[in-house]
């Protein structure tokens, strides 16, 4: 779903390349100039054999699972159609409202859904580890989260940095809002014990780097994830799609896919 998008094109290549998956159908929005064209030629290469369609139900009828990196409105509607068709739904789309999330949860009562704002296997592992380390260490270890992204990124801290902050706060049994310390500048006073600090580097072509630092007296523990290729998000989505085949109805996250 969303075959011509940045993630969509990457997913087409990965699904085609994997011995475990077969591309059954490719869907784009009504009016898109890829509709009716051969997928491979639309992507600027040799003929593929699949024709790009906007017939969602026809595509679902030929599929075991739909991988969806589109927009919130599209993903919410698709969650219900996929559930009705008995097709598992992997949602990589981000930016959902609370109402959207409630609607997806409702679809998950009968459908099989995997939804994650970051499909990277490593980042999801880092979230889990951050929670564990924060739970194991007391507040005498200061937690600082440092992230770096390319110069075009418009929001800070990154959504992933906030996910890591939530995990650290959960490990300590506190609410992140109560302890987050963002964008220090000037005479800020000494660091408050238990604070979770955030720092954002912006520049060049960083794809995404996250450090979670636990700074104690005489030692520091640093958990680090470095993304060096956007394909890692697509690889996570394909892994989720394979996992979803044998899942019971419900809404799952990448932590479930990873067995974490
Ligand atoms: P994009 O704009 O390049 O691609 C979105 C595609 O969806 C477009 O080709 C668009 O035509 C298509 N689309 C829109 N409406 C449609 C419809 N009704 N039917 C079928 N296709 C439709 O965007 P992108 O960079 O590929 O990102 C897409 C989403 O995935 C965003 O929400 C982004 O934040 C998210 N994302 C998530 C992860 C993750 O790890 N979860 C990683 C990267 C991007």
From TrEMBL:
<feature type="binding site">
    <location>
        <position position="28"/>
    </location>
    <ligand>
        <name>NAD(+)</name>
    </ligand>
</feature>
<dbReference type="InterPro" id="IPR022663">
    <property type="entry name" value="DapB_C"/>
</dbReference>
<comment type="similarity">
    <text>Belongs to the DapB family.</text>
</comment>
<dbReference type="GO" id="GO:0016726">
    <property type="term" value="F:oxidoreductase activity, acting on CH or CH2 groups, NAD or NADP as acceptor"/>
</dbReference>
<comment type="subunit">
    <text>Homotetramer.</text>
</comment>
<comment type="function">
    <text>Catalyzes the conversion of 4-hydroxy-tetrahydrodipicolinate (HTPA) to tetrahydrodipicolinate.</text>
</comment>
<keyword id="KW-0521">NADP</keyword>
<feature type="active site" description="Proton donor">
    <location>
        <position position="153"/>
    </location>
</feature>
<dbReference type="InterPro" id="IPR023940">
    <property type="entry name" value="DHDPR_bac"/>
</dbReference>
<dbReference type="Pfam" id="PF01113">
    <property type="entry name" value="DapB_N"/>
</dbReference>
<dbReference type="GO" id="GO:0005829">
    <property type="term" value="C:cytosol"/>
</dbReference>
<feature type="binding site">
    <location>
        <begin position="92"/>
        <end position="94"/>
    </location>
    <ligand>
        <name>NAD(+)</name>
    </ligand>
</feature>
<protein>
    <recommendedName>
        <fullName>4-hydroxy-tetrahydrodipicolinate reductase</fullName>
        <ecNumber>1.17.1.8</ecNumber>
    </recommendedName>
</protein>
<comment type="pathway">
    <text>Amino-acid biosynthesis; L-lysine biosynthesis via DAP pathway; (S)-tetrahydrodipicolinate from L-aspartate: step 4/4.</text>
</comment>
<dbReference type="GO" id="GO:0050661">
    <property type="term" value="F:NADP binding"/>
</dbReference>
<feature type="domain" description="Dihydrodipicolinate reductase N-terminal">
    <location>
        <begin position="1"/>
        <end position="119"/>
    </location>
</feature>
<dbReference type="GO" id="GO:0008839">
    <property type="term" value="F:4-hydroxy-tetrahydrodipicolinate reductase"/>
</dbReference>
<feature type="binding site">
    <location>
        <begin position="116"/>
        <end position="119"/>
    </location>
    <ligand>
        <name>NAD(+)</name>
    </ligand>
</feature>
<keyword id="KW-0220">Diaminopimelate biosynthesis</keyword>
<dbReference type="InterPro" id="IPR036291">
    <property type="entry name" value="NAD(P)-bd_dom_sf"/>
</dbReference>
<dbReference type="GO" id="GO:0051287">
    <property type="term" value="F:NAD binding"/>
</dbReference>
<dbReference type="GO" id="GO:0009089">
    <property type="term" value="P:lysine biosynthetic process via diaminopimelate"/>
</dbReference>
<keyword id="KW-0457">Lysine biosynthesis</keyword>
<feature type="binding site">
    <location>
        <begin position="2"/>
        <end position="7"/>
    </location>
    <ligand>
        <name>NAD(+)</name>
    </ligand>
</feature>
<dbReference type="InterPro" id="IPR000846">
    <property type="entry name" value="DapB_N"/>
</dbReference>
<keyword id="KW-0963">Cytoplasm</keyword>
<keyword id="KW-0028">Amino-acid biosynthesis</keyword>
<feature type="binding site">
    <location>
        <position position="150"/>
    </location>
    <ligand>
        <name>(S)-2,3,4,5-tetrahydrodipicolinate</name>
    </ligand>
</feature>
<keyword id="KW-0560">Oxidoreductase</keyword>
<keyword id="KW-0520">NAD</keyword>
<feature type="domain" description="Dihydrodipicolinate reductase C-terminal">
    <location>
        <begin position="122"/>
        <end position="258"/>
    </location>
</feature>
<dbReference type="InterPro" id="IPR022664">
    <property type="entry name" value="DapB_N_CS"/>
</dbReference>
<feature type="binding site">
    <location>
        <begin position="159"/>
        <end position="160"/>
    </location>
    <ligand>
        <name>(S)-2,3,4,5-tetrahydrodipicolinate</name>
    </ligand>
</feature>
<dbReference type="GO" id="GO:0019877">
    <property type="term" value="P:diaminopimelate biosynthetic process"/>
</dbReference>
<feature type="active site" description="Proton donor/acceptor">
    <location>
        <position position="149"/>
    </location>
</feature>
<feature type="binding site">
    <location>
        <position position="29"/>
    </location>
    <ligand>
        <name>NADP(+)</name>
    </ligand>
</feature>
<dbReference type="Pfam" id="PF05173">
    <property type="entry name" value="DapB_C"/>
</dbReference>
